[in-house]
Amino acid sequence: MADKEKxxxxxxxxxxxxxxxxxxxxxxxxxxxxxxxxxxxxKATELFVQDLAVETxxxxxxxNKVDYxxxxxxxxxxxxxxxxxxxxxxxxxAKEYLSQLNGGASSDDDEDVVVLD
Length: 117
Hints:
One of its GO terms (cellular component) is CHRAC. By secondary structure, the protein is mainly alpha-helical.
């Protein structure tokens, strides 16, 4: 009966449980991971991604289309998503990035290249 229940739970999840387990075990604070814990983390991750996608779609510039700019805008304006600022930054031109690094000094020789880092 327990095997059937595990199979039903796994069928409800789209994310690969083995990958989630690998990510969780990469933390030195985690030693053992129960199947129930793994399922809950996977389900919570799916719901988070779904909520982020729906919210981004609501605020997107084009109907039924989400692009990187929309996602970056949500992440950088919503205080609850502050932990994603470094992962999903706004796109800026290379010369703007270099200008920020140099403390405002900008060179006109820089190419207009988008930097994601």
